[in-house]
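Quick note —
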Amino acid sequence: MKIIETKNAPAAVGSYSQAIVVGHTVYTSGQIPIDPITEQIKSNDISEQSEQAIRNLAAVLLEAGSDLDRVVKTTCFLNSMNDFAAFNEIYAKYFTKKPARSCVEVSALPKGALVEIDAIAIVSECFSVPCR
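Predicted structure written out below.
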């Protein structure tokens, strides 16, 4: 088991890791749209927040030796299902391989975020050697 930590995504705000790699699989914690430099959410727009959350997720995956194309499952949390269409438009730009997905509305997210996304992905070395 390997703990993943990168400064290119927001630091964990609790007693958890940004991600954990076990074997050829990476499990990420949920990423909200905090700018990793300012440590703030810059916008109240669901499209902009979705972009930032996905950039954060991509940074964690990269540190783990994976990327968005190797994601097999996401869980997406929206503060309001009224934002689903706008969120889905941004999501579709980044997740072109169409991983399995759950998307649910929640009553609140950390720091007042409108969106949070976590993922399960295959790490890159699995593609150069047989996965066992």
